[in-house]
Amino acid sequence: MNKLIFILVSVFCFSTAYQPAEAANNKNRLTGSVVKGIVERFVAIHYSQKPLDDSISKKILKLYLNRLDPGHYYFLEEDIREFQKYETRLDDMLRRGNIEFALDVFSRFKTRLQQRLQQLEGFLKQEFDFSKDGKWKINRRDEPYPKDLEDAKEIWRLKIKFDLLTLKLGGTELEEAENRLMKRVRGLWKDYSQYDDDDVIALFLNAMANAFDPHSAYMAAQELKNFDISIKLSLDGIGAVLRWEDGYTVVNSIIPGGAAARHGKLLVEDRIISVAQGDDAFESVIDMRLNDVVQLIRGKRGTTVRLQVLRESELGLDTLKFSIVRDKIVLKEGEAQSHIFEPEKASSELPSLKHRIGVIKLPSFYVDFNDRRKNPNNYKSSSRDVKNIWSSSSTRKLMV
């Protein structure tokens, strides 16, 4: 993972991992009956003991709309009026497991986003006049939604002009600035166009959780897995950090000491085009969502995953195949670390250093709960690691 989650608050998590077995084998597992069960359980055991009522329903609507369109660029006033008809009905719909509203709103959002993308393409064919004075409010969260399509088009035009001007003032050539904006909006469209019903309903359930408490959240199954990895700082896989780029899954970095690093043949910037489990047939992953590709590559330690990659060479593109045995990957970069500054190595940062100084760096909070249950006196956690570093510093006569 490129980023490790910093756990700064208590998170109240519900996951599709706790869904009834009836949905386990369906591609879209968040069916109405499953949502009904999740909502019932959430309301029953949430610490606040608030009822799921009309006041919560209004908050759900506001949070869901703000999650999709925080800057009020996409939805129109007519959309909002239509959605507000449901602002005191969402609580009843959720209790029944009715998820149509969430899907309908998301569908409308995609329609509006596509309209803005088409407008952007038209704007960039024109020449902006940056010599005229104008006003633009950067934070539009509290601004009214566009009155109609023409109003939305003008707001969007001003935003594009502001973004281009900002890039130009930062030293970016106009053509490059235009390319960046186009890539940004196309990327946004690509991300949302890959959402399935489960993804949309997860957004809606998260809005419900936030409506009860800002520190409560719903986590879909995959999100919970990633959260668990960030807590344990370990996973079973090959030890490669991946990114999504123009339809391809690209190797961003190789984790030192991991299975891919020991294998030695998978390289940074390789483009993964197909994945196979053991001796099974290859499955194309071109244009597949990054999370889905990650799930194909991760797996139980000791099992084999085969990768087919494209690699640039002097002669063009080479197609290569690798077999890598999955193993436990430890994310060392997230662990507590220490560094000692010696007096004789004073620098411009510490010019008058007279004592040995120890610095403790804690990139993330972590604990392996399974290990804690098995080895209560010897398990890995951020607090234990910091304590061990601290204890060690006292024996080495350090100032910390």
Automatic annotation (TrEMBL):
- According to the record, the signal peptide region is 1-23
Q: Which UniProt keywords apply?
A: Hydrolase, Protease, Signal
Q: Which SMART domains match?
A: PDZ
Q: What is this protein called?
A: Putative exported tail specific protease
A biological-process GO annotation: signal transduction
User: Which InterPro entries has this protein been placed in?
Assistant: ClpP/crotonase-like_dom_sf, PDZ, PDZ_sf, TSP_N
Q: Which GO terms describe its molecular function?
A: endopeptidase activity
Gene Ontology terms: cellular component: outer membrane-bounded periplasmic space
What organism does this protein naturally occur in? uncultured marine bacterium MedDCM-OCT-S11-C95
Asked if the keyword Signal belongs to this entry, the reply reads yes
**Residue ranges of every copy of the PDZ domain listed in the record:** 228-298
